[in-house]
Amino acid sequence: MRVKLVDPSAFTPPYDRALAGALAAAGAEVELITSKFLYGPVPEPEGYDVTESFYRRTSARGLQAPGRLPLKLAEHLPDMMRLRSQLDGDITHFQWLTMPALDNLLVRDKRPKVMTAHYIASPRPKWLELTNAQRTFDSMDAVIAHSENGASRLRDLIGLPADRVRVIPHGAFDYLTRLPDEAPLPPELEGAEGPVILFFGLMRPYKGIDTLLEAFSAVEGAELWIVGNPRMEIDDLIERSRRLPGRVRWLPRFIEDREIPAIMRAAAVLALPYRDIEQSGVLYTGLAFGKAMVLSDIGGFGEVARKHDAAMLVPPDDPAGLAAALNDLTGDDEARHRLESGAAAAAAGPYSWPEIARSTIRLYREVGA
Fold first, then answer.
1. What is the DSSP string of 261-329?
2. Contact 250/238 with Cβ under 8 angstroms?
3. Could you give all domains of the chain from N- to C-terminal order, each with its CATH number?
4. Which of 156, 172, 298, 301 can bridge 347 by disulfide, Cβ–Cβ 3.0-4.6 Å?
5. How confident is the model over 287-336, as pLDDT tens digits?
6. What pLDDT digit, counting tens, does each position of 15-35 carry?
7. Under a CB-based contact definition with an 8 Å cutoff, are residues 285 and 176 in contact?
8. What is the dihedral of CA 140, 142, 143, 149, to 10 degrees?
9. What are phi and psi of 157, to 5 degrees?
């Protein structure tokens, strides 16, 4: 079976490459069609091909080049036209479409095709957002949701027929647990005094760092690490953190894969106090490392916690509830170890990539590949 995975803007390279490798290991011939990821190294392909055919001129100029977005826009149409000739496999599996309204028109006849709904719509979508989502997902022969919550939104909000929606979980990023060249803990994070609460990943407003800081003011005997690449203004948050009674350490930069294991292993608790999300690669990194986690009860997070006893849940934007959960886990070894065991079991079972590859290939065959 020849599979074409498509992520034009390289929005989710860890997921793309983990899925490509798992499908290849299951016997598929896989080509990942994408663009160069400019923020740092990505996993080397194992058993599959990568074609970086999108935005080549833009990528060559780098992230800081002036006029980057207009140049990318100018490249998009010819790159999508080229994609048509590349989709000569048995099935096309879209991870993202950069300009869905245009892209759907250009590939509407390339069937069979499926799409993974990494993000469906905001909690209260406006008419245009909802219309674009409906057109995008309705053009597919099947749409993959990572959770029952996501599947329900595809049916009830987007209006997809139930027989075109499949639930296939997001896999745990276990490749990070066996990197051959792990880096030591960054100097900025050495010498922790007490258990570490870790916020990890891209810093964006919807991720609730402000809520986490308010909650941490009521946490005793722990440190807070806020680690990841800022995609928002953080100066006010840093200043606010300096006034808290507990120690807060910031590492505001892109974190390469080889740095992740030491950071994850040093953490006692992983906190994801998000306001809006369907799924998160950070969650599935936490599962891979068997971390005790505190998650906002939104999107598909609740299913991971409730089905597998792999995390504690708190309402979003609830500093008091978040503080109570963090105090429980940093102060109770038995409770923390129970969640760690649940996370490790989930990563080795339903969230393992071999299981995900089997389910995905079954879907490909169902839609005619």
1. HHHHHH-SEEEE--SS-S--HHHHHHHHTT-EEEEES-TTHHHHHHHH---EEE-TT-HHHHHHHHHHH
2. yes
3. 2-171+352-366 (3.40.50.2000), 175-348 (3.40.50.2000)
4. 172
5. 999 999 999 999 889 999 998 999 999 999 999 999 999 999 999 999 99
6. 999 999 999 999 999 999 999
7. yes
8. 140
9. -90, -45
